[in-house]
Amino acid sequence: MASIQTLSDSDRRVVARWALACAERVLPLFDADAPALDEITDAVERTRAYSAGASTAADEIGKRLVAVKAASAAITPAGAAAARAVAQASAVAHMGAHALGAAAYATKAVSLANPDQPNAVNEEIRWQLANLSERERSVLRLLPPLGSDSAGPLGTGLLSRGILGSTIREIQARLG
Fold first, then answer.
1. What is the pLDDT of residues 77-114, one digit of tens each?
2. Rounded to two decimals, what is the model's pTM?
3. In the chain, where are the structural domains located?
4. What single string gives the DSSP state of each residue in 14-59?
5. What's the alpha-carbon Rg for the chain, to the nearest Å?
């Protein structure tokens, strides 16, 4: 049986748009060599194509780790978090819950890039919530609360801890 974190293909396409918007917002923080930049740019374009219906989940699933590997080429921690936001957005084709991971990593990138601005994280989360369509909100509400289902990214792993976990919990609490 598929995880409830997977969502239907049409629902994954819906939230891929928002996940990508969150990731693109912090993309200027990604600082790496040209090959890594090309891989991140390719992941952005593939995610956009998937969201628009111009690519299939099968096409994207095999390539979802390319952006993860590119993140290791980042020069700064904020750049690595920005690349991981792109990686999470591109993984939405595989499992819809990665949309929340994209938002969380974007928030982490903002936090790391602005250590002297305590309001930066709250402002980023406000922006993310304000840029959700009603359809995207309804799809994200289908996902289980963070930590309640172990069969996917919203389990008790990396996304449940630190700023990643607090971001996802805040977004889920405010989805209405």
1. 999 999 999 999 999 999 999 999 999 999 999 999 99
2. 0.96
3. 9-174
4. HHHHHHHHHHHHHGGG----HHHHHHHHHHHHHHHHHHTTSS-HHH
5. 15
